[in-house]
Amino acid sequence: MIRPHRIVGWLLGVVLALPAAALASPLVFESPSGPLTLREIAGFKSWAQAFHPDADNQGDAWAFGHSGQALEALGLMYEATGDRDFLDRMIEIAGVGLAERNDLAPAPVGHRPLWPGISTPAWGNEAPGSAGAGHAGPETGDAAGKIAYAAYLILKTPGLDGVAVPDGDPGQFGKTYGERARTFVRLLDATEDQFILAWFVRKDDGDRFYYPKDRRYIQALGNERNNAGNAVPWNQQFMIDCGLQRLAQCHELLRDDPARIALYDACVRASLSWMLQSVTSHRDLGGHGVYYTWSYAADDAKHVEDSVHAGLDLEGLYRCYLSGRYAIVLNRSHLQAFANEVADVMSLGGGRFAGIVDGNAKGGHAVSTDFPRPDVLVVLEFRPDVFPAIAQAAMAAKRTAGDPTAVSHLLWVKYRLTQNLATAP
Question: Residue range 265-281: average pLDDT?
């Protein structure tokens, strides 16, 4: 039984115990070649220990925001190094995020009138009392996926099942690694069952993702554009995919619930197929073969994808590819084409990067920048010829030099290239 008074006390303790210096960044990227260095690993550990988890999910903090990025970065660092310090810190932060889910957290963080009900196992992404305070959307799938990543890494690591987690189980999610992973999976399956699968998957259209038409969803949007009934944009589809894919991986390692595994994987395959059917192929730019351009959403073809959302698209595609689960619809040639697009179209030279995937720029999310969007960096394992130059541009820019997503992605690509892992998942 998870007791709300224990959770709120724990959360306050986490927040109050962290120093003001938590915002300082010791992150280091020394070189685009060779194995990860002791200084790079030590720098990331220092950053992780000083990291300040978000106290709620405003701005989708536990999805693509501050805390969600931290979980993803720590997971990559654990996979690249095998250093359990990264996993232990990841598990601790994941517990904070799960405890902030609407049905688990006390008010005002949780137990708010989040659509479709006060006990909805989702993460509200607006401030209590705001016009959109009742809103939760596909981003909840990403928060679930980031937390499920911790469970997956526990389950895939031999010898951890009966070992005590060193944090002492402050959230009462399980004292051992195995218990913690199983609790995470059980609670996150509830998010999929009662929120994602119930409201965003259209069974009569091949398990594709659409926004709900439910009037409570429309009311909860507040001042946002009424997108009820529309196709979920690609970046948010990959947020849904994140939770489904990683929970499928967890259940496979647990060797339980084959029907659930099949359902989760079917939804992800439907999303990937839809997206890949929607891209436009172009040939022979710079002698590197095919590259892709694509739109913001399947039913919004007039808006070519901007660089901010493209980063989320590419990170999601790469994650699906790396899992090896969806080879029937997604293979290396697809990732090569997306990498060509980043290397040959979005990279403009002189340290400049396009704001739109066709090489152009506009305002807002589509503005050109003097840094690469951190999320796109993972696909550069398929273009090692440009990786050093783009890595240097990322670390030279103030926007990304201390960004855990940028640095962890650069270190991950270096690890993959050094270990000759880039030719296969």
Answer: 97
